[in-house]
Design brief:
The protein is of the alpha/beta class and 212 residues long. The chain has eight helices and seven strands; from the N terminus they run βαβαβαβαβαβαβαα. The longest helix is centred in the middle third of the chain and has 16 residues. The C terminus is likely disordered.
């Protein structure tokens, strides 16, 4: 549940699967989310690589929005397990920040952004998420919204929160979104619009009364 924040939001970071392809649903959703945020005047921030990072850059540029990326200096050999910086991505951006290693790259993305959207991803995404979540707790009241995008996150996050030792503040800095419009609404209002979903008999009864 995302509590109200005083944070002024100008830049929004995108995190997620570097292996996402252009026909993957989460790639397309990242593209559309960046597009709608750029149209609203927000600057998109990402790690300069492929997948979700590229999707967010292309989506923002579709609306002629601004994009800033953080990469590891091209002169540094990171080996085969690093996704690298994508030329298709960094050739289109407005500003590039260069760092010396993975940790600095992650920290710089988090430092730049005022809100954070997490799509489906792997260990790199989880590392970024942990830093964002911890930072939000210590800055509570002026915290940066953490938005989990897609059905893949709800059960995962709820299991973490319920089964581990998350305190009350750590439970108040995030929201879930399932559409680009929900992301924009959350960021614009700086609070969650999530409501419990209804199903089964109660949902049918509600629809009956709504039509009376």
């Amino acid at each position: 549940m995302l509590a109200k924040t005083k944070k002024i939001i100008k830049r929004v970071a995108f995190y997620g699967d570097a292996d996402a392809k252009k026909n993957d649903q989460h790639y397309q959703e990242a593209f559309e989310t960046a597009k709608i945020l750029a149209k609203a005047g927000y600057i998109v921030v990402n790690g300069g690589g492929p997948g979700i990072m590229l999707a967010s850059t292309l989506g923002a540029k579709e609306e002629k929005g601004k994009v800033e990326v953080v990469i590891i200096d091209e002169k540094i050999d990171m080996g085969d397990n690093y996704e690298g910086s994508g030329k298709e991505n960094i050739d289109k951006v407005n500003k590039i920040y260069r760092t010396q290693n993975i940790q600095q790259r992650t920290e710089k993305v988090v430092e730049l952004a005022d809100a954070h959207i997490v799509f489906k991803g792997g260990t790199g995404t989880m590392a970024e998420l942990a830093l964002v979540w911890e930072k939000a707790k210590f800055e509570f009241g002026n915290h940066e919204p953490l938005i989990f995008y897609g059905d893949c996150w709800k059960n995962t996050v709820e299991d973490l929160v319920n089964n581990l030792n998350f305190d009350s503040l750590e439970r108040k800095v995030y929201a879930f979104a399932n559409s680009p419009e929900e992301v924009l609404d959350i960021i614009n209002n700086k609070k969650s619009k999530n409501k419990p979903t209804e199903s089964g008999l109660f949902s049918k009864i509600g629809k009956i009364f709504a039509n009376l």
